[in-house]
Write a structure and sequence with these properties.
α5 runs antiparallel to α6. The protein has one domain: Serine Threonine Protein Phosphatase 5, Tetratricopeptide repeat, CATH 1.25.40.10. It contains 6 helices and no strands. 79% of the residues lie in helices and 0% in strands.
């Protein structure tokens, strides 16, 4: 809980820093998935160019059964990785997306 308090303090001090929102979303992912989802949504809405968000957000939305949203997030992340010329993240997102399509039998 101390980590969450610290991260919330960081968000208060630097509300426009996407890393702080990302860090708390990851922290909540294991303890409070609803809160994690809320922070990932804030990131996607307010910091759409923050590439690390897409991998974890898409996976979390898939876990919630929000398959269309998860698919859209994967596809947006892949497009963003191409725009940012981030080959490593592009490969990770493409692999995760293919696994997602296979696991949920999406054509």
């Amino acid at each position: 809980m101390d980590r969450i308090k610290l991260l919330l303090q960081f968000i208060e001090e630097e509300p426009d820093n996407p890393f702080n929102l990302y860090a708390i979303a990851l922290e909540y992912q294991n303890t409070d998935q609803e809160a994690a989802r809320d922070y990932f949504e804030k990131l996607l809405e307010n910091h759409a160019d923050y590439l690390p968000t897409y991998f974890h957000a898409a996976a979390l939305f898939a876990e919630f059964g929000k398959l269309e949203k998860a698919q859209q997030i994967y596809e947006s992340g892949i497009d963003l990785a191409k725009q940012q010329n981030d080959q490593h993240t592009l490969r990770e997102l493409q692999n995760a997306y293919q696994n997602f399509l296979f696991e949920y039998d999406i054509d």
